[in-house]
Amino acid sequence: MSTQTKLVIGGVVVGFLTLFVFPWWLSALIILGVIGAPLVGYLMLDPSQRRRVRAQGRKRLGS
């Protein structure tokens, strides 16, 4: 199992645990924040920086 798969499974488990510990609306805000923060960071990059990020991902796929 890849490292990324382990992180995704761990994130899902933590998301479900927050549903039981916190009220549903607070859990929803936490989950949206965890998903939204990297997305907003990526969207704030210049087009040339986004191109470099995509190239890094493709380079890692081949190794």
Automatic annotation (TrEMBL):
Membrane spanning residue stretches: 7-22, 28-45
UniProt KW keywords: Membrane, Transmembrane, Transmembrane helix
Protein name per the record: Integral membrane protein
